[in-house]
Amino acid sequence: MTPNNRANFGSKLGAILAAAGSAVGLGNIWRFPYETGEHGGAAFILVYIGCVLLFGVPIMIAEFSIGRRSRANTARAYQILAPSTPWRWVGRMGVLTGFLILGYYVVVSGWTLEFIMEAATNSFAGKSADEFIASFSQFTANPWRPIVWAVVFMLATHFIVVKGVEKGIEKSAKIMMPMLFILLLVLAGCAVALPNAGAGLEFLLKPDFSKVNGSVLLGAMGQAFFSLSIGMGCLCTYASYFKDDTNLPKTAFSVAVIDTSVAVLAGIIIFPAAFSVGIQPDMGPSLLFVTLPNVFQQAFGSLPWLAVILSVMFYILLALAALTSTISLHEVATAYLHEEFNLTRNKAAWIVTIGCTILGVFCSLSLGIGKEYTIAGLTLFDLFDFVTAKIMLPLGGFFIAIFTGWYLDKRIVWEEFSNRGTLKVGLYRLLIFLLKFIAPIGIAFIFINELGWL
Ligand code: PHE
Predict the structure, then answer these.
(1) How many CA atoms within 13 Å lie on the side-chain side of 451?
(2) Which structural domain, as residue segments, surrounds residue 171?
(3) Which of left, alpha, beta for 30 (phi over 0: left; psi -120 to 50: alpha)?
């Protein structure tokens, strides 16, 4: 493929929104609160923000540079920039990581569709927190219902990906991102006004550093990679559609700020609400889904129609946020198969769709009838989450940092960071220092510390 016949994002804002659309998703609203809850609250958030700044932003700029310079899918990108070297395996590992993430991500995305239905039929009304917990675990353990939703979600992703980059991805991101943000602000306002919300805010804002251990560090690092969509070539693939005048450092920084704000905002909704109704903050992946219906119910109990409207809107926006992320995951593997194996985009997309649907079915079943089948004590669903977010993404990030910091010609790096000298990149030296030393050493330290590697 030559640069000329590949698609482009239409505008600079489009590039930021598409990347932010990939970054903002279930990672912020579903995964961030439960990881924060499991790892003790405020101190985790501070470590998380440290990981975003020290590893996340520089690695995102590095991925952007690799993608835009090579204008190819993530595996080919390394072949172009580092011909006949093993670096191409970094790209291939990224494609595999994305494939595995999509396999379980689509299951949770499917849950959002179930909740749109439940919200629309007003079935939250009159339930207690315990009843929400019971009915959610019944739903996820059901052998077919969550699977049907996952398939529906996968097909929606498929058809948008097939429609192509600009029309599908850019448009959906432009409308829903600002709407989601406003609705989150409204809900945060409602949550902090609930009785006993103060305890939740304290959990979120008052750090207890004695709680920071290896698992907190690994959790925060994994969450940063997952939430920013870095370490697997997703933003590298998107950057291959960026224009030559897209400001890469600024785009990366904007995406990190948007992404982190959405995550913290989600925390400001979930924890006050959870403490208010007595839900344990460390209950894991079901936290968002059992806590939020309480907010709608408690805050708008006297105005049921408003509760229905707001909750339906919220779950639709959540589903759309998930959709812009599943699209980006799907696109990585589709672009790879399409460009490397000479398949049509349509065929490539079908292979990804069918493969991920099969993974999704197994992941979903592992929460119900397949609960007994565990590997290292984890269900398939948890295993996929652990291996991808906490191992494969940071490992990918480690290699991307080394590739850009040490291997790639500094002239190329400078040209990409500064758009061939037309931009002033004040922090250029700092970024290179972070890529060369801080990110690789930091990631290796956290791995060794928690997983006992080496
Ligand atoms: N960042 C997305 C989210 O927060 C998930 C994702 C991970 C998307 C990796 C693409 C690549 O939901």
Answers:
(1) 16
(2) 3-450
(3) alpha
Which H or E element spans position 391? none
pLDDT digits (tens, 9 = 90+) for 274-320: 999 999 999 999 999 999 998 888 888 788 888 899 999 999 999 99
The enclosing domain of 147 has a CATH number of 1.10.4160.10
Answer whether 328 contacts ligand 1 (Cβ < 6 A).
Answer: yes
Among 22, 237, 388, say which to mutate for ligand 1: greatest number of ligand atoms within 8 Å of CB: 22
Q: Name 407's Cβ contacts closer than 8 Å, sequence gap at least 6.
A: 82, 87
In testing the pocket of ligand 1, which one of 157, 229, 264, 327 has its CB within 8 Å of the most ligand atoms? 229
Residue 240 token pair? 């291959």
Q: Ligand 1 within 6 A of 102 CB?
A: no
Q: Helices 248-277 & 197-205, crossing angle to 10 degrees?
A: 140
Q: What is the pLDDT of residue 2?
A: 40
Helix, strand, or coil (residue 372): coil
Distance 391 CA to ligand 1 centre (A): 15
pLDDT-derived band at 50, boundaries 50, 70, 90:
very high
Output the pLDDT for position 3. 43
Write the CB contacts of 270 (distance below 8 Å, at least 6 apart in sequence): 33, 37, 191, 200, 287, 288, 291, 292
Per-state percent for the chain, helix, strand, coil, to nearest 5 = 80, 0, 20
Number of domains in the chain: 1
Cα separation of 43 and 37, whole Å?
Answer: 11
pLDDT at residue 160, as a whole number: 87
Residues 394 and 225: beta-carbon distance below 8 Å: yes
Q: Which of 42, 115, 36 is nearest to 283 (CA)?
A: 36
- Reading the block at residue 179, the tokens are 């709407």
pLDDT tens per residue across span 58-94: 999 999 999 999 999 999 999 999 999 999 999 999 9
User: Pick from 84, 432, 403, 383: which is nearest to 231 by CA?
Assistant: 403
Residue of 226 and 123 predicted with greater confidence: 226
User: What is the DSSP secondary structure assignment for residue 85, as one 8-state letter?
Assistant: S
| H-helix segments, 121-247 | 129-141, 145-163, 171-192, 197-205, 214-228, 234-239
Query: Cα–chain-centroid distance for residue 417?
Result: 24
pLDDT at 9: 72
Q: The whole model's pTM is what?
A: 0.95
Q: What is the pLDDT of residue 179?
A: 87
What is the arithmetic mean of pLDDT over 391-408?
A: 98
pLDDT value, residue 168: 59
